[in-house]
Amino acid sequence: MDFFNANLPYILAGISTGGQYALIAIGYTMVYGILRLINFAHGDVFMASGLIMVYMYTCMPLYISIPFTIILTSILGFSIERIAYKPLRKAPRMSIMISAIGMSYLLQNIALYITGGLTKYYPPIPWISDSIQIASAMTKRVTIITPFLTVILVVSLVMLIKHTKIGMAMRAVSKDYETSQLMGIRINRVISTTFIIGSLLAAAGSLLFFSNYTGVTPTAGGMPGLKAFVAAVFGGIGSIPGAVIGAFVIGICENIIKGLGWTTFSDAFTFVLLIIVLMFMPTGLFGEKQTDKV
Predict the structure, then answer these.
(1) Burial of 98 (0-12, 13-18, 19+ CB in 10 A)
(2) Number of neighbours of residue 238 by Cβ within 10 angstroms
């Protein structure tokens, strides 16, 4: 019981961090499921959402700046797809990957130019940013809200994919891109919708993340984006439940390691865990088994 009380703050922080990673990881796994593309700019969309919120808050009330930030982030994700990926739809995969990396550095350098390299501080959000007592631990209310909001958003996304026309189109394109196109599915619309949904979830993750860690820098999306990508691969890239479970496992484990005093190794643990899992399960925990047709 003493061990639990001593590590309760880290367990709560791990659950919260895992939920934030999950919202980013879903964007990676959705894009990969349809395009077989790793959107390396997704972590920077997360960072850009934080900066948009900072600047929107300076010129409009909070209740307007939050939805406005989410809308602008979704438009940013849509624009990235149209500018960086759509012209390369029939190009070799290596060309698309290089374009994704280039877009990532472009967003970082635009943010660097706008901010001058200075840390911008995220505005406190009433109620969400308040501190509360949970048993023996003192934490922010956002820590408790994050896992519940993550589950609600994930369930809503799964319902959309399983029970709507656009969701059916997403599943069809994910199974067979070329055949779906021949059957009359509007591929460009499906892909754009996927990027918009992924960016919307990244904006929600950004809102929760920066309410807890208030400093926003041009490289703030680097490590969360990378860990979210690891979570997506760990759970099975292309699997939404796998990405969510992988994110929570990584978030909880890395915070428990910090609680044990091994903060220096918390980031390294994430990648060591990924290597170990992929050694025995190359497709991740819930990834589809690949079969060769002869």
Answers:
(1) middle
(2) 23
